[in-house]
Each structure stands twice: as structure tokens, then as C-alpha cells.
Design goal:
Elements: E1 4-16, E2 20-27, E3 31-37, H1 47-50, E4 55-63, E5 68-78, H2 81-84, H3 86-101, H4 110-125, H5 130-144, E6 162-166, E7 171-174, H6 175-178, E8 184-186, H7 189-200, H8 213-230, H9 236-244
Parallel strand pairs: 3-5
Antiparallel strand pairs: 1-2, 1-4, 2-3, 4-5, 6-7, 6-8
Helix pairs in contact: 3-4, 3-5, 3-9, 4-5, 5-8, 7-8
This protein binds zinc ion.
């Protein structure tokens, strides 16, 4: 058994018994992996802080029969959302759960890891509203997974003058072609602009805009319905957001 070093983020952490901890790491090298951290609950053990959720760094692991074992970690960043606000903690938990849903062991997850890291930086900075960060993250994650519709042209005729979003068709339409589809929604021009920006902006400028309440409401409506239609999983952390943060 050879020890290896991976760079990644703790996306979930669970105590096992009195002293140990099982974590899930999203890594640059190995995708999503489960790892066991012996003694990580004992006070004074250096793994206590390194194995908390939202911790980013280098992890020294060796493979076992069912999972890896973490022996040491060099933490480069811990995002302390609990201290910042409970809302941010809920959003960050949901983002981790969603990242876990879309990743597998030995599948390249470096884009998603980077997106998660940038999203966490945005949550910590307060420059953009938490609720908007969540929707930017969702769409960008869909984009990485090839599940975001083409928002730059009408699917039917290729016209770039897109006006409608079709949840059921997983696509966008121009004015003429939308006439044949009763299920599509006319988008506010700013909603289309927002979706196009999310799809095309470089990662370091992704979280750099704001939207009006009206634009946010439509973005939320389209995104929620789109994800509900195509996601086959019930996210625990999403219930927390819906019950504790979103009251409208
Ligand atoms: Zn068209």
C-alpha cells in the first residue's frame, strides 16, 4: 500500500463511534473519495479540524479495502460558515451535497472542485447575495455536466434572438418557434442575459453581478422547475434552505 497525496475539499464528515471520523473528499486527482480518519474526534488530534466540512488542503491517504485512510492533512483554507452565518452554512452544505451527487471516484472533478472553491469564496465575501450564488452555482454545475441547455440560440431554427425558455424541452426558443410550444416561458431579457453570463463568464468573474428582485424571481422559478424535472434525488440540505431561509 502506497501513501498518496491528494488536493481537495471535505464535502461531508461523520463521526464513527467515540473517536473516529468518516469523511468524503472531493479531490483534484481522484474525484470523490471516502476516507477514514482514525482518532479524528479526539481532542488535540490534528485531524480534528482538518476533517471538518468546507476544509480545503492536501490530504495524505493510503488505500484500504473499502475506503482510504487519512493519516495527515495540510489545511490551506477552512471556510468557517458557521461563524459567518447559519444561512451561509446551509447554502454551503447544499453545494457540497450537490457536488457529491455529480461526482464519482476516479472521475475528473477538478472543474467542480474549483467551482465549489470559488462559490465558497463568494459566500464568504458578501459581495453577492447568498441566494444568487446558489443559482449561479447550480447552473454552472449543470454546464460542467453538459446538462445546461444552449441559451445562445433557438434550438429549432438556430436564431440567436432567443426569447423563451422551455423546461420540458430543455432548450431555448426564438419568438417564432416558441409559438408552437405552449410550455415555454417568455424570459425577461435580463434573465436571458444572466443565463448567458453564467454559461460564458470566466470562473474568476462568475460571481460579480447582481440582479433585481424581478429578475431573481424568474431565474429562481425557471431553475427550480428545471432541476426538479431532471434531478432524481432528494437533497436533505435543500430542505434546510427551504424551511429556514426561503420564506417567500
Ligand atoms: Zn427559432
Amino acid at each position: 500500500m502506497t501513501a498518496e497525496t491528494v488536493m481537495g475539499m471535505v464535502i461531508s464528515s461523520q463521526n464513527i463511534g467515540e473517536t473516529d471520523r468518516r469523511i468524503v473528499l472531493l479531490t483534484r486527482e481522484k474525484g470523490k473519495i471516502a476516507a477514514f480518519a482514525r482518532g479524528a474526534v479526539k481532542p488535540k488530534n490534528p485531524l480534528v479540524s482538518a476533517t471538518q466540512p468546507f476544509t480545503f488542503g492536501e490530504f495524505f491517504i493510503y488505500p484500504g479495502r473499502d475506503s482510504y485512510t487519512v493519516t495527515r492533512a495540510d489545511v490551506s483554507k477552512h471556510f468557517d460558515f458557521v461563524r459567518k452565518s447559519l444561512d451561509k452554512y446551509y447554502y454551503a452544505s447544499y453545494m457540497c451535497e450537490l457536488a457529491g451527487y455529480y461526482t464519482r471516484e476516479n472521475l475528473d472533478a477538478s472543474d467542480i472542485l474549483l467551482l465549489l472553491y470559488r462559490s465558497f469564496q463568494a459566500l464568504m465575501s458578501d459581495a453577492v447575495e447568498d441566494r444568487l450564488i446558489r443559482y449561479i452555482y447550480e447552473w454552472r454545475l449543470l454546464l460542467i455536466n453538459g446538462e445546461m441547455p444552449d441559451v445562445f440560440k433557438c434550438r429549432k431554427c438556430g436564431n440567436e434572438n432567443v426569447t423563451h425558455f422551455s423546461v420540458s424541452g430543455q432548450c431555448t426558443f426564438c419568438e417564432d418557434c416558441a409559438g408552437h410550444d405552449d410550455n415555454s416561458d417568455r424570459m425577461l431579457p435580463s434573465v436571458l442575459h444572466t443565463l448567458r453570463y453564467i454559461a460564458a463568464a470566466p470562473l474568476d468573474r462568475l460571481f460579480s453581478f447582481k440582479v433585481s428582485d424581478e429578475v431573481f424571481a424568474q431565474l429562481k422559478d425557471i431553475t427550480d422547475r428545471y432541476l426538479e424535472t431532471y434531478r432524481r434525488y432528494d437533497f436533505n440540505s435543500l430542505h434546510f434552505i427551504e424551511e429556514n431561509i426561503i420564506k417567500t
